[in-house]
Amino acid sequence: MIPVAVIGASGYTGLELLKILHNHPEFQVVYVATSEGESRVEALHPSLKKVVSLPVERADARAVADVAQLAFLALPHKTAMGFARELLERGVKVVDLSADYRLKLETYEAHYCPHEDKAHLPEAVYGLPEYYREKIKKARLVANPGCYPTASLLGLLPFIPYIKEESPIFIDAKSGVSGAGKKLSATTHFVTINENIFAYNPLKHRHGPEISEKIDDLFVVKPAVHFVPHLLPVTRGMLCSIYMELEKTVDPFEILRDRYGDEPFVRVRETPVDIKSVAGTHFCDLYARCEGTGLFISSAIDNLLRGASSQAVANANLLYGFDEGLGLPDLAYVP
Ligand SMILES: NC(=O)c1ccc[n+]([C@@H]2O[C@H](COP(=O)([O-])OP(=O)(O)OC[C@H]3O[C@@H](n4cnc5c(N)ncnc54)[C@H](OP(=O)(O)O)[C@@H]3O)[C@@H](O)[C@H]2O)c1
């Protein structure tokens, strides 16, 4: 068994990591941490009582390096890079769920904060297996993609070779409230979000530049990306409706099946996708329709799993040469 650490274990993605790793045949959680420590996993998460019983430490990179080979960082951005730097220097591999290593330096600093680990940033590999699998296998630092970029990129990338010159891409995205993390804010308050829906940070959300940068990384064309996220009154799940103009009409099912037919965790559906069919799983479900040269793509994931924790474990599987799907959840919370 490979000994691993989960840092940020009291948060939403930390809990999902603990659940997936509990059933994983090759990884064993040996170190669990939060900012305060001095607790036990089952006290942080009553749902784990009689399932997982481990002490919770105050996060300390030296202590991680003493016992673990790999660390999952389920931490806020900025905090994550402080730990990652020290862990990498001590020989611990890192899968970082935050945004700290996802972007080029200029993009990161324009949208987040000054970067505090410029030494390791260039070696980070973007952890979207369907597009960066071979690089992930050779990495020691994986930048787990954002949830909206995961759903958006898996849907739109197969169509970039067909996009009309100068056509922008419009992404209308909707996320369950767990996407905002466990900390309460005015917009995530029950009274605000219950039976409600609204856009937030329209055209200036930080995931817009992440989507653009990865299109630029993989293709020559540089379409403008207009990204508008919305908050949905559900706990988990994410739906992205994507629109673009193509050079000529195409059969979108053929394109999606050609690209993803051999991918075990992307499902091409005959009817528009829904979040309930993917909630609780590592699947990304896709649907597309082309009318003339107008293209509509619909993409659904579980933001906490394919958008964060199960993708992190898929990346860890690749880092260690295991089957990418080892231990990943595949049964949705339906009905
Ligand atoms: N939620 C999603 O759907 C989603 C999707 C993709 C990516 N992400 C990213 O994944 C990361 C975690 O997200 P989340 O939703 O799980 O956040 P969260 O629910 O707010 O949890 C954050 C965790 O970080 C811990 N933490 C904060 N500062 C710390 C420190 N100095 N030392 C040790 N632990 C510290 C917190 O512990 P305490 O309880 O001690 O404060 C908590 O366990 C974020 O960077 C987020 O952007 C989230």
Brief summary of the model shown:
The protein is an alpha/beta fold and 335 residues long.
Could you name the key traits of this structure?
binds NADP nicotinamide-adenine-dinucleotide phosphate; 11 helices; 7-stranded mixed beta sheet; 15 strands; Rossmann fold; about 325 residues; single chain; 8-stranded mixed beta sheet; alpha/beta; Dihydrodipicolinate Reductase, domain 2; 2 domains
Structure description:
- By secondary structure, this protein is an alpha/beta fold.
- 30% of the residues lie in helices and 23% in strands.
- α6 links the parallel β7 (125-126) and β8.
- The two termini are 35 Å apart.
- NADP nicotinamide-adenine-dinucleotide phosphate (NAP) is lined by residues 7-14, 33-36, 59, 74-77, 79, 97-98, 146-147, 178-179, 181-183, 303-304, 307-308.
SSE layout:
Layout: E1 2-7, H1 12-22, E2 27-34, E3 39-40, H2 41-44, E4 55-58, H3 61-67, E5 70-73, H4 79-89, E6 93-96, H5 105-111, E7 125-126, H6 129-137, E8 141-143, H7 147-156, E9 169-175, H8 190-193, E10 198-199, H9 207-218, E11 225-231, E12 238-245, H10 252-260, E13 266-268, E14 284-291, E15 294-301, H11 305-319
Parallel strand pairs: 1-2, 1-5, 2-4, 5-6, 6-8, 7-8, 9-11, 13-14
Antiparallel strand pairs: 3-4, 9-12, 10-11, 12-15, 14-15
Helix pairs in contact: 1-11, 3-4, 6-11, 7-9
The structure holds NADP nicotinamide-adenine-dinucleotide phosphate.
| Helicity, as a percent range | 25-40%
Structural class: alpha/beta
Q: Over the alpha carbons, how many angstroms does the gyration radius reach?
A: 19 Å
| H-E order | EHEEHEHEHEHEHEHEHEHEEHEEEH
Low-pLDDT ranges: none
CATH third-level topology of the largest domain: Rossmann fold
- How much of the polypeptide forms β-strand, as a percent range? 15-25%
- Regarding quaternary structure, what we see is single chain
CA-CA gap between termini:
35 Å
Please give the order of strands in the largest beta sheet.
3-4-2-1-5-6-8-7
- Write the CATH homologous superfamily of the largest domain: NAD(P)-binding Rossmann-like Domain
Number of helices: 11
Estimate the global geometry from the Cα principal axes.
Answer: globular
| Strand element count | 15
Listed once per kind, the bound small molecules are: NADP nicotinamide-adenine-dinucleotide phosphate
Major sheet summary line: 8 strands, mixed
Domain unit count = 2
What do the pLDDT scores average to? Answer: 97
